[in-house]
Amino acid sequence: MKLAANISLLYRELPMLERIGAAARDGFDGVEILFPYDLDPAALRRALSDAALPLVLINTPLGAAGEPGLAAVPDQRAAFRDGLQRALDIAVATGCPTLHTMAGRPPADADPTRRLAVLVDNLRWAAPLARAAGVVLTLEALNRHDVPGYAYHQPSEAVDVLRQLGGDDVRLQFDLYHVAREGLDLTRELEAARPWIRHVQVADAPARSAPDLSKPAVRQAFEALLAWPYRSWVGFEYNPGGGTAASLGWREPLRQLIASRSATA
Description:
InterPro entries: HyI-like, Sugar_Epim/Isomerase, Xyl_isomerase-like_sf, Xyl_isomerase-like_TIM-brl
Pfam families: AP_endonuc_2 (PF01261)
Shape: globular
CATH superfamily: Divalent-metal-dependent TIM barrel enzymes
CATH architecture: Alpha-Beta Barrel
Strand content: 5-15%
Protein name: TIM barrel protein
CATH class: Alpha Beta
Radius of gyration: 18 Å
Number of helices: 9
Order of helices and strands: EHEHEHEHEHEHHEHEH
Largest sheet: 8 strands, parallel, barrel
Family: Belongs to the hyi family.
Strand order of the largest sheet: 1-2-3-4-5-6-7-8
Number of strands: 8
Oligomer: single chain
Active site: 140, 237
């Protein structure tokens, strides 16, 4: 597995572009940025090159009023498509391979069949554009406590959409924090979603703080990933509290877990 720092949350004590070098110095293999749309793509590309780190994940833009995406929102098709193209332009400019396609909050009174049809239609439009750009789209279930009314709150709901789409252009982004906030068993959900997973993210629940590998559920989830073995990215998307350096205590337990798994492989 490869470890990415989500520098929209980590290293906030530094200007955004300087966070990339800080992540490299702390041993991360790559970085995630939630919404890089205020950054100059050329400057971002230089900062990535200087640090010898890839940008591995970005999100599609928020809606004009701060909505968490638009892919499943009726009457927002044009805005979604404009935002998707903006995101692909950034992804191509920076070599970012994965784009979290945010679905948003459909109206509460919208017919469920219509909501699904809007989402699937938008994703079917977006998928070939992403493929041509060398980018894979992802769907991420966001928990109902933090993002009430989101199009899907649990990984199984996002997988239902992926089943309807078929193909490999749209995959699952599995966030242990959101799954825990939904009260679900992390390892059981990981195993059920395994064929669909493109990208994993982690934070401790319920505070979205640094992951705690002394918690059996968190440790077992990492053990499952290592046993597969999962070879793609794990993004550390958490609030560091008193500063990023002080929040990195999870690294040594994770290194030990990886080493123990390697020794028994």
